[in-house]
Specification:
heterodimer; A: 475 residues; mainly alpha; two-stranded antiparallel sheet; 6 strands; 6% strand; B: 328 residues; Formate dehydrogenase/DMSO reductase fold; two-stranded antiparallel ribbon; 13 helices; 4 strands; globular
C-alpha cells in the first residue's frame, strides 16, 4: 500500500472514531434517561406526588436537547459507511443495510409517533396513555440501540452468512439476531446507558443539595440515582465478565491485547497495571497477579491456557496500548462509581448523606465517569478488533473507499471537527443553563403546541415564555 | 420484491423532496428577510415539521443501503465532498431552529447557519441530480471519476435550478402558512421565482440537446414520457391563476405537483438504471434473503405506518400560523 493510502486510511479511521465517539455520548445518555422518565411518570401516577412530576418535566427538557444532538450526529454515521467505507458497505450491505433499515423504520416510527405526545400532549391525552407514550419512547431508543448492537456484534463475530459474488449474503437471520455474542453485548450497553442516566441524575441532585436549592426534587434524584447505580453496577460486572468470555472464545487477539499478554501462558498470570512496551514486546512497570489468576479471570478456570500476542501472526495483531489502557480506565471508572453508589446509598439509608458534603461533592464530580467508561469500553471493543473491520474476514485497510484522496478526507475531518465542536459547545451550554435553572423553571405546560417529531422544540417554549426567565439561572 | 423496494425508494425520495424541499426553500427565503418578527414567523412556518421531513432523507438512505447496497456504496463515495457539505448544511440549519431563540449575541451565527445551510443543502441536491443525469464515470461497477468527477457546468446549473425550485416551493408554503405581510411578500416573489425556474428549464433543455445527453435519447424513444411534462404544464397554469386570484391553498399543491411530475420524468427516464447509465436496478439489488427480511416486517407493516404518521403530522399542523407569536 502506498504512503498516500495509509494516510487516507488513517484519516478515515480518525474521522470515524471522532464522529462515532461524539455520537455515542448522546444516545448512551438518552437511552437511560428515557427509561428513567418512564419510571418517574409511573411513580407520579402511582403516588400522585407532584415532586415526581416536577422532576419529570425537568429531565424531559434535558432529554430533548441531548436527543436532538444524538439524532443529528447519527445521520452522519449513516452516510459515513457509504462515503468512507464503501467496500465494507458494498460487501456487508446485504446484512448491515437491512439491520440499519430496521433501526430507522422501527425506532423512528415509535419515537416519531410518541415523542410529540411526550413533549406537548400531556393535556390532550389521558394519563395512562401519556405513560404509555413515555414507555414507547423508551422502547424506541432501546430498539435503536438493539439494532446497532446487532450490527456491531455481527462485525465482531460474523455469523449466519455465506460469501457470494464477494458479498456477505445472509443465510440465517436467526443466527445473526440470536447470536449469543449479541445477547451479552446488548445488555452490557443497556446497563451502561442506565448507569449513565442514574449517575447524571444523582450528580445533579447532589449539586442542588450542595447549593441548597430544590431540595425536595434533589433528594428524589440523589436517592433514586444512587440506589439504581448501586444495584446496576454489580450486574454490569457480570455482563462485563460475560463479554470477556466471548472475547476469549472468538477474538483471542483482542483478549491478548486487553491483557497485554505477550506470550502464551498456561495457566496465565494477570497484568493489573503496566506500560506495554510494544517495540520490545514486554510490559514495563508491571504489577502482575500470579497465575492462575489470569486464567481464572479470563476463562473461569484454574488451568486454562491463554493466548499471547506473539503467537498471533504479526499482520493480525491489534494495537496493544489502547485496548489495554482503555479497558483499565473503564474498570477504574466502574470501581469509583461502585464505591460512591454503595457508600452514598448506605449514608442515605442511615439518613445523613446531606451532612456529608464530601460525599455530595464526590457524587457531583462523578458525572463524567459513566461517559468515560462507555467511551473507553467502545475503544477497547473497536480498537481491539483491529486489524479487522469484520473480524477474521475483512480487513479495515481493505474496507475503505479505494479512490478516496487524502485531501478529501482531510477536508471532511476538519469540517466535522469544526461543526461538531460548535454545536457541542452550545448544546452543553444550553443543557447547563437548564440544569442551573433547576426543576422549578417551568410550572405551566403549554397546551396547544403539539410539535411531534421535533425533539428539541420543547425548549422553544421558553423563548417566548417569560416564566423561564424568572428562574434563578445566570444568563 | 425488488420492485417493492424501488417503489419505497421512489416514494421516500419524493416525499423528502416535496416536504424538505419546501422547508429548505423557506430557509433560503429566510435569508432575504431582515426584520426580527418576520424572521421568527418565517421560521415558525416550518419549525414543527422540518425534523419529520428530514427523517425521510435517512429513510431513503437506509433503503438504498438495505435494498441496493451497491448503489449506496457507489453514490455516497462518489459524491464525497458534496455530501459532506450537505450534511454540514443540514446540521447547522437543524440546530439553528433550537439555538437561535436562546442565543443573545450569537443569533447572527444561527441565522447564517439556517439560511446558508438551507441554500447549500438545496444546491448540493440539485448538483447531485445534475451529475447523475449527465452520468458518472463508472468502470466495472467502480466509480472512477476522481474527487471532483461530479463537477460540471450542467451539474452546477442544476444546483442553482433546484435552489430556485425549492425557493418557489418555500414561497408557496409561506403563502399557505402565513398571513399579512409575509404572505403578500411571498406572493410578490412567486412570479420572479417561477420565471427564474422557467429560464432554468429552457437552458437545461438547450444544454441537454447541445451536448447530446443520453437522457434526451430516452425521451425521444419513449414519447409517453411527455405525459409528465404535460401534467407539469397544466399544474403551472393552475398555479399561475391561483396566484393571480390570491387563493392561498392552491399554489403549494400545484407546485408540488410540478415537482412530482419532474421527479417522475427523471425516474422513468433513468429506468432501468439506478445509476444512469452504468448500474441497473437488478444489478444493484441486494440478495433475496436480504430483501425478504426487510420486506416482511419493515416493508409491509412499518412503512405504511410511517406514511400514516407523516399524514397525521401534516394534518395536525394544517392551516395558518399566527405571524405575531413564536412557532404555533
Amino acid at each position: 500500500m502506498s504512503q498516500m493510502n495509509t494516510t487516507t486510511l488513517l484519516l478515515s479511521r480518525l474521522q470515524f472514531a471522532f464522529t462515532v465517539s461524539f455520537h455515542i455520548i448522546f444516545p448512551s445518555f438518552t437511552i437511560g434517561l428515557a427509561a428513567w422518565l418512564a419510571v418517574l411518570e409511573a411513580l407520579h401516577l402511582w403516588t400522585g406526588r407532584p415532586a415526581y412530576r416536577l422532576v419529570f418535566e425537568f429531565w424531559l427538557k434535558i432529554f430533548g436537547v441531548a436527543f436532538g444532538l444524538g439524532v443529528v450526529s447519527g445521520i452522519v454515521m449513516a452516510f459515513q459507511f457509504g462515503s468512507n467505507w464503501s467496500v465494507l458497505a458494498r460487501m456487508s450491505g446485504p446484512i448491515q443495510g437491512p439491520l440499519l433499515l430496521y433501526e430507522t423504520f422501527t425506532a423512528f416510527a415509535l419515537e416519531a409517533s410518541f415523542f410529540g405526545i411526550l413533549l406537548f400532549g400531556r393535556s390532550r391525552v389521558v394519563p395512562w396513555f401519556y405513560l404509555l407514550s413515555t414507555a414507547m419512547v423508551a422502547l424506541g431508543t432501546t430498539l435503536s440501540a438493539f439494532w446497532i448492537m446487532v450490527n456491531n456484534s455481527w462485525m465482531q463475530v460474523p455469523v449466519g452468512y455465506v460469501i457470494k459474488h464477494s458479498q456477505f449474503v445472509p443465510d440465517s437471520w436467526a443466527k445473526i439476531i440470536f447470536s449469543p455474542v449479541l445477547w451479552v453485548r446488548f445488555p452490557h450497553m443497556l446497563l451502561a446507558s442506565y448507569l449513565t442516566g442514574a449517575v447524571c441524575v444523582a450528580a445533579t441532585g447532589a449539586w442542588y443539595l450542595l447549593r441548597r436549592v430544590f431540595t425536595a426534587e434533589a433528594r428524589i434524584m440523589l436517592r433514586m440515582g444512587l440506589a439504581l447505580a448501586a444495584v446496576l453496577l454489580p450486574l454490569q460486572l457480570v455482563f462485563g465478565h460475560l463479554n470477556g468470555e466471548y472475547i476469549v472464545h472468538h477474538q483471542p487477539s483482542k483478549m491478548a491485547a486487553i491483557e497485554a499478554r505477550w506470550h502464551d501462558e498456561k495457566p496465565a498470570s494477570e497484568v493489573l497495571l503496566a506500560w506495554p512496551d510494544v517495540r520490545n514486546q514486554r510490559n514495563l512497570f508491571a504489577i502482575t497477579l500470579p497465575s492462575p489468576l489470569g486464567s481464572l479471570i479470563d476463562s473461569d478456570s484454574l488451568s486454562a491456557g491463554e493466548v499471547g500476542l506473539t503467537s498471533i501472526a504479526p499482520e493480525n495483531r491489534p494495537p496493544v496500548l489502547i485496548p489495554f489502557l482503555s479497558f483499565r480506565i473503564m474498570v477504574g471508572c466502574w470501581l469509583v462509581m461502585l464505591l460512591i453508589a454503595w457508600r452514598g446509598s448506605y449514608l442515605i439509608h442511615k439518613g445523613h448523606i446531606e451532612q456529608s458534603r464530601r460525599m455530595l461533592w464526590a457524587t457531583f464530580f462523578s458525572f463524567p465517569l459513566p461517559f468515560i467508561a462507555t467511551l473507553t469500553g467502545w475503544f477497547t471493543a473497536e480498537v481491539g478488533r483491529q486489524p479487522w473491520v469484520v473480524y477474521g474476514v475483512l480487513r479495515t485497510a481493505e474496507a475503505t473507499t479505494p479512490f478516496l484522496t487524502t485531501g478529501s478526507v482531510l477536508v471532511s475531518l476538519l469540517v466535522f471537527c469544526i461543526v461538531y465542536i460548535l454545536i457541542f459547545v452550545f448544546g452543553i451550554l444550553y443543557i447547563y443553563r437548564i440544569l442551573r435553572a433547576g426543576p422549578e423553571g417551568r410550572l405551566v405546560l403549554p397546551t396547544a403546541r403539539a410539535v411531534p417529531n421535533r425533539p428539541m422544540s420543547v425548549l422553544d417554549d421558553h423563548a417566548g415564555v417569560p416564566l423561564a426567565r424568572q428562574a434563578p439561572a445566570g444568563e | 420484491m425488488v420492485m417493492f423496494w424501488v417503489v419505497v425508494l421512489i416514494l421516500s425520495s419524493l416525499i423528502y423532496v416535496l416536504l424538505d424541499g419546501s422547508d429548505l426553500g423557506v430557509g433560503i427565503l429566510f435569508g432575504l428577510t431582515h426584520d426580527e418578527t418576520r424572521r421568527a414567523a418565517v421560521m415558525g412556518a416550518v419549525s414543527p415539521i422540518w425534523d419529520g421531513n428530514e427523517t425521510w432523507l435517512v429513510v431513503a438512505g437506509v433503503v438504498l443501503w438495505g435494498a441496493f447496497p451497491v448503489v449506496y456504496a457507489t453514490l455516497f463515495s462518489a459524491f464525497y465532498l458534496p455530501l459532506l457539505l450537505m450534511l454540514a448544511g443540514l446540521i447547522l440549519r437543524g440546530v439553528a431552529f433550537e439555538y437561535r431563540h436562546r442565543a443573545e449575541r450569537m443569533r447572527w451565527l444561527w441565522d447564517l447557519g439556517f439560511a446558508g445551510g438551507s441554500l447549500v443543502a438545496a444546491f448540493i441536491q440539485g448538483l447531485i441530480v445534475g451529475a447523475l443525469v449527465e452520468g458518472l464515470r463508472v468502470t466495472n461497477g467502480q466509480y472512477t471519476g476522481g474527487p471532483f468527477g461530479w463537477l460540471s457546468t450542467f451539474a452546477v446549473l442544476c444546483g442553482l435550478g433546484l435552489c430556485i425550485g425549492y425557493s418557489l416551493l418555500g414561497a408557496c408554503w409561506l403563502v399557505g402558512k402565513c398571513e399579512a405581510e409575509i404572505r403578500d411578500a411571498a406572493y410578490r416573489l412567486i412570479p420572479y421565482l417561477a420565471g427564474g425556474l422557467l429560464v432554468f428549464l429552457v437552458v437545461v433543455f438547450a444544454y441537454a440537446l447541445a451536448e447530446h445527453l443520453r437522457v434526451m435519447a430516452r425521451w425521444l424513444d419513449r414519447p409517453y414520457l411527455l405525459l409528465f411534462p404535460a401534467i407539469g404544464t397544466i399544474a403551472a397554469l393552475v398555479a399561475a391563476r391561483s396566484v393571480r386570484l390570491r387563493r392561498d391553498g392552491i399554489p403549494f399543491t400545484m407546485v408540488a405537483l410540478i415537482f412530482a411530475a419532474a421527479f417522475g420524468t427523471l425516474a422513468i427516464s433513468f429506468w432501468p438504471y439506478m445509476i444512469p447509465f452504468s448500474i441497473t436496478i437488478s444489478q444493484a439489488a441486494a440478495p433475496p434473503s436480504s430483501l425478504a427480511f426487510i420486506f416482511w416486517f419493515a416493508g409491509i407493516i412499518v412503512f405504511p405506518l410511517m406514511l400514516l404518521y407523516t399524514a397525521i403530522s401534516l394534518t395536525v399542523f394544517r392551516g395558518k400560523v399566527r405571524s405575531t407569536g413564536g412557532p404555533y
